[in-house]
Structures are given as C-alpha cells and as structure tokens.
TrEMBL record:
PANTHER family reported in the protein's UniProt record: CELL DIVISION ATP-BINDING PROTEIN FTSE, IMPORT ATP-BINDING PROTEIN
Gene3D superfamilies attached to this UniProt entry: P-loop containing nucleotide triphosphate hydrolases (3.40.50.300)
One family name in Pfam for this protein: ABC_tran
Keywords in alphabetical order: ATP-binding, Cell membrane, Membrane, Nucleotide-binding, Transport
Species whose genome carries this gene: Undibacterium hunanense
Signal peptide annotation: none
The protein's name: ATP-binding cassette domain-containing protein
Annotated ranges, domain ABC transporter: 2-223
InterPro entries attached to this UniProt entry: AAA+_ATPase, ABC_transporter-like_ATP-bd, ABC_transporter-like_CS, ABC_transpr_LolD-like, MacB-like_ATP-bd, P-loop_NTPase
A single MF term (Gene Ontology): ATP binding
Amino acid sequence: MIVFEHVSKQYSQDAYALKDVSLSIADGELIFLAGPSGAGKSTLLKMIAGIEKPSSGRVSVNGQDISKLKTSSLPYLRRKLGLILQDQKLLNDRSVLSNVMLPLVVTGASSTEAEQRARIALEKVGLPDKAASLPMALSGGEQQRVAIARAIVNRPQIILADEPSAFLDRENANKVLGALKAFQSAGVTCIISSHDEQFLDQASRVIYLSQGQVVNTWKSSLAA
Ligand code: ADP
Ligand code: ADP
C-alpha cells in the first residue's frame, strides 16, 4: 500500500512540482499516471522511491513513512521496488545479461545465481536470445524491455516506470506495456507514467496530474 497525504514539492519558492496530493494505491493495482510534460509525474514516482523528499506532507509505503527513513535504510526500501526511470541508462560497455545481473551482484548474490535469475528475467520480457548482445545493438523497444528485466530481477513488490513507452512506436510500446502487465497479473503493483493516451484504458486506474495536482482519477472498466 502506497499512501500520499497532502504531499507538496517545491523546487523553488513559487514553483510547485506537486501541490497537496493525496492518494492511496493498493497492492496489485496497475496505475497509469497521466498528464502533460511537467505535470509532476516523475516527481511523484521518485518520491515513492525516496529519491525526492516532500517539502510538506507524508509519503508512506507499506505503512512506513519514507521521509523518516534514514539514508542507510533506503536500500531496503529500494529492494522492494523495481525502478525504470528515465535517467537510468543501460551500461553500454557490457552485455545485456551483465546489465540485468547487476542489481543482484551489488546485493551480494553469487554470480551463478545472478546469471540464472537474469536469464529468467530476460525470458519474461521476451528477450532470452539477446543475453550476449550489447545494449547498443538493440532497438529502443528492446532496450526498454532490458531495463524492465533489470528492474524486476530482484522480484520487487512494486514497479515504478517513468514513461517506459516514450519514443517507441505502437508495436514496441505494446510489448513494453505487455511485459509490465504480466508482472501485475503476478501480483506486483505497477505504477506507470505516460503522456500516451492510447494505453489509458488498460490500467485498473488512471490518475491524471496537471500542474502538480491530481485533477482527475478514474477506474477503467477492466478494473478488478
Ligand atoms: P513530469 O514527469 O510530469 O514531466 P516532473 O515531475 O518532471 O514532471 O516536473 C514537474 C515540475 O517540477 C516541472 O515544472 C519541472 O520543471 C519541475 N522540476 C522537476 N525536477 C526539478 C528539479 N530537480 N529542480 C527544479 N525543478 C524541477
Ligand atoms: P512462482 O512460485 O513460480 O515464482 P508466483 O506466483 O510467485 O510463482 O509468480 C507467478 C509468475 O510471476 C512466476 O513466473 C514468477 O516468477 C513471476 N513473478 C512473481 N512476482 C514477481 C516479481 N516481483 N518479479 C518478477 N517476477 C515475478
């Protein structure tokens, strides 16, 4: 469960990235964060991961107040999260497999186990035959699916994806989204930001942001 209570974020005195946002997201939901560029979608996602802190208000994940977490506790929070953020590029000097293994290697898994789980993650996003490739040799859509594999290799409870379908054509965007939806079907909470309206009807709920405020929220007819 993710809860925002009267959360505001000000980067400067008169500019709010988020303004008095209150919402709660239950386990297993597939949420689309919609709204134009600059609406505050990335800021909202980063707050769930503790990357940005609220200027006021409270964000909690599974009952734990994120802003009260010590820096030393953040890695424990992050282990529950799969992050697909725009500023996290794949490393181009190593293979796809090695990129996906990385989150496991840094948490001390053996290389045998890391490799095994990374291969399973690549299968789940439909790219088992790209393990040995360099990221640069892949299409944009494939690279985005590698980023998803890297995000889910730790088996997170929550996936946060910032504009995962940006710059992709419809077919590739559909594959990326299909991969994310498969995790939601397995019980993982997915929060996906998108300014791409064509996918909104696939979400269990759409939260529409404008100028840092929730201006609309609706449940899809597919909602469980
Ligand atoms: P979105 O993801 O919907 O495009 P963002 O959360 O990135 O929106 O940005 C919301 C607003 O906050 C924008 O006006 C943006 O310029 C501003 N903003 C975001 N990050 C920073 C930052 N680090 N410093 C100053 N302003 C920022
Ligand atoms: P299993 O016991 O086979 O892992 P689960 O019921 O846990 O089955 O999950 C169903 C499917 O979804 C399996 O393929 C599982 O590996 C996958 N899965 C479940 N949760 C996650 C997660 N957080 N990250 C990645 N894959 C997951």
